[in-house]
């Protein structure tokens, strides 16, 4: 049985810049924390998997003292958990407001995969309520109900560790060789490859310049035919899939049929 496993942020919708970043900053303001992330700073933070983990990068001794936070590690973890719960509430409100559109082609390909009997899933390091809100935005309630969702703290180690993908594959009883993961970042790609999955990449707002050696296909988006016409640009096609102006399910099936791409001879994948 073939399977399609999407990442969430940057894949289903370009949510980092217009969803997560303003939600983090609104949370910092509500809690009186002396920080606001700029777009340039957040471009670095997105390389840290998981929202709580990004927040914890703030916790230098100087920041803890300036913010009047507890020094006890357990109490500090509790504070971060409170921030993150509120940030998730703010973020899901942004998503439900409908201001962030789904990325081109993600729903079209999921509909084709569902019709062809493929298993559908999402594997993300974001909190599960946030993931489900983006999934419903991108797919609509009916198609979203066809997806298995693996998110947040269901595994301890976040991407680029392969744990979330390995857990999804194991839970769904899938053969890794029949699964294609859709990612937008190098960390996500490394997680998928580490779990033995093929990976197709659709680059997003903060990831266009990342190194995707090891991916089976790298495109600017999946694209869509008219009337929503958005043409994809192929950035890397080591298997010779040769998608047309928009990526089709048949192209992802070809990725699986071709097997893994040749390893890059000049570097490691970690």
UniProtKB/TrEMBL annotation:
Annotated organism of origin: Streptomyces subrutilus
GO molecular function, one term: hydrolase activity
Coiled coil feature spans: none
Record-linked Pfam families: Hydrolase
Listed Gene3D superfamilies: HAD superfamily/HAD-like, Putative phosphatase, domain 2
Organism classification: Bacteria, Bacillati, Actinomycetota, Actinomycetes, Kitasatosporales
Residues annotated as signal peptide: none
Protein name: HAD family hydrolase
Keywords associated with the record: Hydrolase
Superkingdom of origin organism: Bacteria
């Amino acid at each position: 049985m073939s399977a399609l496993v999407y990442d969430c942020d940057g894949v289903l919708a370009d949510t980092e810049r217009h969803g997560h970043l303003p939600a983090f900053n609104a949370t910092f303001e509500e809690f009186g924390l002396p920080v606001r992330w700029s777009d340039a700073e957040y471009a670095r933070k997105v390389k840290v998997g998981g929202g709580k983990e990004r927040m914890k990068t703030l916790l230098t001794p100087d920041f803890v003292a300036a913010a009047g936070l507890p020094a006890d590690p357990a109490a500090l973890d509790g504070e971060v958990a409170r921030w993150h719960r509120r940030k998730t509430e703010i973020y899901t409100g942004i998503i439900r407001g409908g201001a962030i559109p789904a990325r081109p082609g993600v729903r079209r390909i999921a509909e084709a995969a569902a019709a062809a009997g493929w298993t559908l899933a999402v594997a993300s390091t974001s909190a599960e309520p946030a993931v489900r809100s983006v999934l419903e935005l991108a797919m609509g309630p009916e198609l979203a109900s066809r997806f298995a969702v693996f998110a947040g703290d269901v595994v301890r180690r976040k991407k680029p560790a392969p744990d979330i993908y390995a857990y999804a594959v194991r839970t769904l009883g899938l053969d890794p060789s029949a699964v294609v993961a859709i990612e937008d970042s190098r960390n996500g790609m490394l997680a998928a490859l580490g779990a033995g999955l093929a990976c197709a990449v659709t680059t997003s707002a903060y990831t266009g310049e990342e190194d995707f050696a090891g991916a089976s296909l790298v495109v600017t988006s999946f694209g869509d035919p008219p009337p929503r016409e958005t043409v994809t640009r192929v950035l890397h096609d080591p298997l010779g899939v040769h998608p047309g102006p928009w990526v089709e399910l048949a192209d992802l099936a070809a990725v699986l049929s071709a097997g893994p791409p040749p390893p890059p001879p000049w570097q490691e994948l970690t």
